[in-house]
Write a structure and sequence with these properties.
There is one protein chain. By secondary structure, this protein is α/β, with parallel strands linked by helices. Strands 3, 4, 5, 6, 7, 8, 9 and 10 form an eight-stranded mixed beta sheet that branches. A two-stranded antiparallel sheet has the order 1-2. The radius of gyration is 16 Å and the shape is globular. It starts with 12 loop residues before the first strand and ends with a strand.
Length: 217
């Protein structure tokens, strides 16, 4: 489901050949990649949910060439951008982008198993119910022993920790009262309820977090 978002929620500027450039993706790609290098398997199949402009998957696939990456995206313009970024990069370990709405029931039925699933900056843009559905699907799509890396802004023990976070959360909820920042402890509970084992919580730049979970072997 694509929800109504404020203009600040997903900024991407058009470039040549259908590519889009998101300043936020350019800023956080290396930091997220560092988490992947520490926790992801070296080989296997990797799924990126909500790949956005395609900037991330290019960085990830270069850094982890032993993984074969499947980018996905619900937005047609961004699917064009993803394939354009991958084509320009000349990466043989990235498949053509697929349409995927990970908030849909049973989205995982024709996917997987994957050794790694990555989700960046989505949970705060969807409802709690949709977030739980996404994580349930991730657990079903992961291979035994597979790794899930979830990145984004979160409340910490129920609290927004900066003025910027409070402002952005208010903008999100003003556009759609069902969306907004999720709580880190609550999401850890969702992961556990889905059958995943929360393993690491990594502090990231700009007050973000990376949550790392594993599917029991």
């Amino acid at each position: 489901m694509i929800r109504k978002l404020p203009p600040t929620a997903s900024v991407a500027d058009p470039q040549e050949s259908g590519k889009l450039h998101a300043p936020a993706a350019a800023r956080n790609a290396d930091a997220i990649c560092a988490v992947l290098l520490q926790h992801a398997p070296a080989t296997g199949r990797a799924l990126e949910i909500a790949s956005g402009t395609g900037q991330h998957v290019v960085v990830f696939a270069r850094a982890l060439p032993g993984l074969h990456w499947q980018p996905t995206e619900i937005d047609p313009a961004r699917r064009i951008s993803i394939d354009a970024h991958v084509t320009e990069a000349g990466l043989a370990n990235v498949a053509p982008v697929r349409h995927l709405d990970a908030s849909a029931p049973d989205w995982h039925a024709d996917s997987g198993p994957y050794d790694l699933i990555v989700l960046v900056n989505l949970l705060h843009l969807i409802s709690d119910a949709e977030g739980r559905q996404v994580l349930n699907g991730v657990a079903a799509a992961l291979a035994p022993g597979g790794v899930f890396v979830l990145y984004g802004p979160f409340k910490r023990s129920g609290e927004l920790i900066s003025e910027g976070d409070r402002r952005f959360d208010a903008e999100l909820r003003g556009a759609d009262p069902l969306i907004g920042y999720k709580d880190d402890l609550e999401v850890a509970g969702w992961l556990g309820n889905s059958g995943l084992e929360p393993a690491h919580c990594v502090g990231m730049p700009a007050n973000n977090l990376a949550l790392v979970a594993r599917k029991p072997a």
